Amino acid sequence: MLNSTKTIQSLRGMKDIVGSESELFTYFIENASKIAQKYGFSYIETPLLEETALFKRSVGESSDIVNKEMYQFIDKGENDVCLRPEGTAGVVRHFVEKKLDRAGGTYKWYYYGPMFRYERPQKGRLREFHQFGCEVFGIANVYEDANIIMLIREILEYFDIGFTLKLNSLGCVLCMPQYKNNLVNHLNSFKSELCEDCNRRVDTNPIRVLDCKNEKCQTLLKDAPKITNSLCSSCNSDFEKLKEILDFNKINYEIDSNLVRGLDYYNKTAFEFVSNEIGAQSAIAGGGRYDRLVEFLGGKSTAGIGFAIGIERLLELVKIKKEEKEFLYIGVLDEISLNKAFEIAIKKRKTTKTYIEYTPRGFAKHFGIAQKLGCNIVALIGEKELENGIIYTKNLNTKEENNIILEDF
């Protein structure tokens, strides 16, 4: 029998976004979206629930996400579905479903919203988390790789977040197979010493071994062959050109030959932005090129590149800029003034964030409520003010007080 007295709490690894955190969250989304729009991106919203096959074919069945972390179930229609663990696959699914791969042209979308992965909750890592991301289709030019990196840099710099850019190339269908053979031969020489996950990856997706966070594995991998030494002429030319563009635009970076990203669909350019300000989970943004992903999902070969930013990881570093935004508090000193105060509030909301307190109170009480709400301007009206056609205002930051003619206000 259901215990109706038991308090229901949020699920482990999931949390409410409210108060000062919600203010930071919406502040980040609003400004990151404006920057993406400046770069020619338009908004796309994809469903939270998708066919499981979408992620098995895109993210890769060998990935930890598909193997261990998906919220997967059979729905009432006997469909195998899951909550999205990342954002790119759904956008690519839309691109193919709407036959945009056949139409040709360039498409740029940005998105934000919740993703779901069943993993051990820790600081900066939740089971329901939020990402902001951008995806580009139809541009194979390496200048777009640089453009995406500059977009992320502009977002992070807007919020005064320090970062290090790590860069790698994962090659293509011409150079990656030979590299994988070389890597597997190297790994097999000490395979028994690798962790359980790495042993599995040697057979399923060997380059993912390079991404292992186990300290012993990282020590063993110190002398592993580097993909950047095995690139074909086309991939090498693109990688050198990308570095040249970043150098010309004074964007500092580090080459990290073990950077492979956590998803199977990347090729050529791969990058991560990392921060030393948030502890062990230092990656705050990452992405790269995925020129074969549209094909993996049944579409026509189409160049693609994108990135995602983990919003929760950034929020503790985000500070709202001090350009003071007016938050108006309107209060009444008596019942007679409430109709006028209500009319004023309706008009002010067209241009200003406004709160109205309906209960008549004295000055001190109104100031106290306004401060708790975070309002910076208080406007009070009573019978006397109504008769004189004025409204009393006080700026709680500067302490400046005025009686303003109602029409001017």
Overall description:
The structure is a single chain. This protein has 3 domains: 20-173 and 250-315, Bira Bifunctional Protein, Domain 2 (BirA Bifunctional Protein, domain 2, 2-Layer Sandwich), CATH 3.30.930.10; 176-230, no CATH class; 327-405, Anticodon-binding domain (Rossmann fold, 3-Layer(aba) Sandwich). It is built from 15 helices and 16 strands. The chain has helices at 20-38, 52-60, 64-69, 88-97, 100-103, 142-158, 176-188, 196-204, 215-220, 233-248, 293-296, 311-315, 338-348, 363-373, 383-388, and strands spanning 42-43, 49-51, 72-74, 80-83, 107-116, 128-137, 164-169, 254-255, 267-274, 283-289, 304-310, 327-332, 353-357, 377-381, 390-395, 401-405. Strand 3 and strand 4 form a beta hairpin. The protein starts with 19 loop residues before the first helix and ends with a strand.
Summarize the structure.
Helices cover 36% and strands 22% of the residues. The chain is of the alpha+beta class and 409 residues long.
Cα gyration radius (Å): 27 Å
Low-confidence stretches: none
CATH topology (level 3) name of the largest domain: BirA Bifunctional Protein, domain 2
Helix amount, in percent? 25-40%
Tell me the distance between the termini. 60 Å
- Enumerate how many helices there are, as a single number: 15
Strand content: 15-25%
Strand count: 16
Mean pLDDT: 91
CATH superfamily of the largest domain: Bira Bifunctional Protein, Domain 2
Q: Describe the biggest sheet?
A: 8 strands, mixed
Multimeric state of these chains? single chain
* The CATH C-level class name of the largest domain: Alpha Beta
What's the architecture of the largest domain, going by CATH? 2-Layer Sandwich
